[in-house]
Design a protein that fits this description.
The chain is mainly beta. The protein has 8 helices and 33 strands. Pfam families: fn3, Ig_RIMBP2, SH3_9.
């Protein structure tokens, strides 16, 4: 390709394997899921294109349309025309090769995937390293055995004929041809070695009373060529028109037409309901109709176009060029079901992904004449998910719904304006996906240790949304540290609303008191002295807080309940229990536990 093409045409030269493909679906990259749609090729269902090399890891090919536009092609949107790889040339490096790729008009046995008559472009010329070959791209595929060409009736006598032909075109690296078979009415009359003259004298014929089909066939290591690709009729009542027109494999939207050619050098014009529809090249004798209308009657006419005037035939026989056949398509029925249904894990733990291969759709998006609208996923006869897109290939299904149905398998149906398809093949749901996920235990967050605490780091348990550190725990904490007039832990039979909890941290072990307990009166004096020191040190830094709360926050002396200690009318400055104890001598004990509110030496 020239380097001055527009931006839609890649300037890179591709090399290696070249495949002829046909688009299964129409595709507009700007309606697709990717961020750079201009790098992808727009596709029209039924159109031919080329792809180069192998598919990349994302599932795209490098491709080229027949108009020369290049870009990425999604692999699930195209099918190879030939089953095996077609190697046109080891390297497409010359401008002549590039022109062939961009401008040749391919046709496989006359097949067309369009309802409208396509335009035709003459065959181009490619180089095989040994000369030039005037061939179409479908004539050099690895799955097509090269066949002899241009069979000619050199001479016709009363009891014999002489025929000649040209050698077949063999692609580079395809293989070798060993010989030719010459057949009369499918019976081998002689075998001619390769390298001999490509002519044959066929005797013991009764030309005046019988009609014979003479064919020449290539013999190769990969099989024999199709005898109808190099054939002609001789004898009595031979006419130009083809014979044995048949229509097979009729569906709601398609049909296959075939015939027996009088001469394989003839091309044939196809008429559908009296309108010229398409032209089938020489050496082809089949045609596939697509995009027909359901429940419709069609009349087909096939007219032979001789490459040269058959002067050996009488005028009346020369003028008979047409043959006819009629058929009707099937009524529109439910669409075909999806194929290859599978189930795998979804994008989230609460979903699974169901994938499938859509049925073959026409360019207008129909299957069996039904207008496909999307796909539905079913479990135990109930639709559990659906996607409204004719070419969709997967969707997500909520696991909760499948568990509620106790479903272990799913099917997929094609949805259409004319109804649903039958169920697809059953796809089992992996058992590990149906098991509810095990909840993960919550990890208790760590809290910073108190500055004055010499004990190891204290952990607080996360009590959850319904267990707050409220009065239930405070009642446990409110037990006076001088329980029983001594600094002892609560009695074992003490019960609180959170019975069985000693502290917010179940991992911490309750320390046991040791040594002689401090007398009650001494403990009170030490506590009062500590509270005064704390209040004095915090007065300046909490002045603003106390000024706002001075009228609202008044705290009674926690010792008012003790016998004969202080008047009930005496009020504290507002120091918390923690602050109260920090400055006291009790706070200097090596085994202080903030959450348990008692002290040991």
């Amino acid at each position: 390709m020239d380097n001055d093409q527009n931006s839609n045409t890649s300037k890179q030269r591709y090399s290696g394997k070249v495949h002829l493909c046909i688009a299964r679906y129409s595709y507009n990259p700007f309606d697709g899921p990717n961020e750079n749609p201009e790098a992808e090729l727009p596709l029209t269902a039924g159109k031919y294109l080329y792809v180069y090399g192998d598919m990349d890891e994302d599932g795209f090919y490098e491709g080229e349309l027949l108009d020369g536009q290049r870009g990425l092609v999604p692999s699930n949107f195209v099918d190879f025309v030939q089953d095996n790889e077609t190697r046109l040339s080891s390297t497409l490096s010359t401008e002549q090769d590039q022109n062939f790729i961009n401008h040749s008009g391919p046709a496989l046995e006359g097949d067309r995937l369009e309802i409208s008559p396509p335009s035709h472009i003459d065959s181009s010329v490619i180089s095989n390293g040994a000369g030039t070959l005037d061939v179409n791209i479908d004539e050099i595929g690895e799955d097509i055995v090269p066949y002899p060409r241009k069979i000619t009736l050199i001479k016709q006598l009363a009891k014999s004929v002489i025929v000649g032909w040209e050698p077949p075109v063999v692609p580079p690296g395809w293989g070798t041809i060993s010989s030719y078979n010459v057949l009369v009415d499918k019976e081998v009359r002689m075998n001619i070695a390769l390298g001999s003259r490509t002519k044959a004298l066929i005797e013991k014929l009764n030309i005046s009373t019988c009609t014979y089909r003479i064919s020449v066939q290539s013999i190769t290591s990969k099989g024999n060529s199709d005898e109808l690709q190099c054939t002609l009729l001789v004898g009595k009542d031979v006419i130009v028109a083809p014979s044995n027109l048949k229509v097979d494999n009729i569906t709601q939207i398609s049909a296959e037409l075939s015939w027996l050619p009088t001469n394989s050098n003839y091309s044939h014009v196809i008429f559908l309901n009296e309108e010229e529809f398409d032209i089938v090249k020489a050496a082809s004798y089949k045609y596939h109709f697509f995009n027909l209308k359901p429940n419709m009657a069609y009349k087909v006419k096939v007219m032979a176009k001789p490459h040269q005037m058959p002067w050996q035939l009488p005028l009346e026989q020369r003028e008979k060029k047409e043959a006819f056949v009629e058929f009707s398509t099937l009524p529109a029925g439910p669409p075909a079901p999806p194929q290859d249904v599978t189930v795998r894990a979804g994008s989230t733990p609460a979903t699974i992904q169901v994938t499938w291969k859509p049925p073959t759709l026409t360019a207008t998006g129909t299957s069996h004449g039904a207008n496909v609208t999307g796909y539905g996923v079913y479990a135990k006869g109930q639709r559990v998910a659906e996607v409204i897109f004719p070419t969709a290939e997967n969707t997500l299904v909520e696991l909760m719904r499948l568990r509620s149905l106790e479903a272990k398998e799913v099917t997929v149906r094609t949805l259409s304006a004319q109804g649903e398809s039958v169920d697809s093949s059953v796809a089992a749901i992996p058992s590990d996906l149906l098991v509810p996920p095990t909840p993960h235990p919550r990890t208790a967050p760590k809290s910073k240790p108190l500055a004055s605490a010499g004990a190891p780091e204290t952990k607080e348990e996360h009590l959850g949304p319904h267990l707050k550190m409220d009065e239930s725990w405070e009642q446990t904490r409110s037990a006076s540290p001088v329980h029983g007039h001594m600094l002892e832990p609560p009695a074992p039979n003490f019960h609180s609303p959170l019975q069985g909890r000693r502290s917010p941290s179940p991992n911490r072990i309750l320390p046991q008191p040791q040594g002689t307990p401090v007398p009650n009166t001494v403990a009170k004096a030490m506590a009062r002295e500590a509270a005064q020191r704390v209040a004095e040190s915090n007065r300046m830094e909490r002045r603003s807080v106390f000024s706002e709360r001075s009228n609202a926050a008044q705290y009674a002396n926690s010792d008012d309940e003790e016998d004969g200690y202080d008047s009930p009318n005496v009020k504290r400055r507002g120091a918390s229990v923690d602050d109260f104890l920090k400055g006291s001598e009790l706070g200097k004990q090596p085994h202080y536990c903030h959450s348990e509110e008692y002290h040991t030496e």
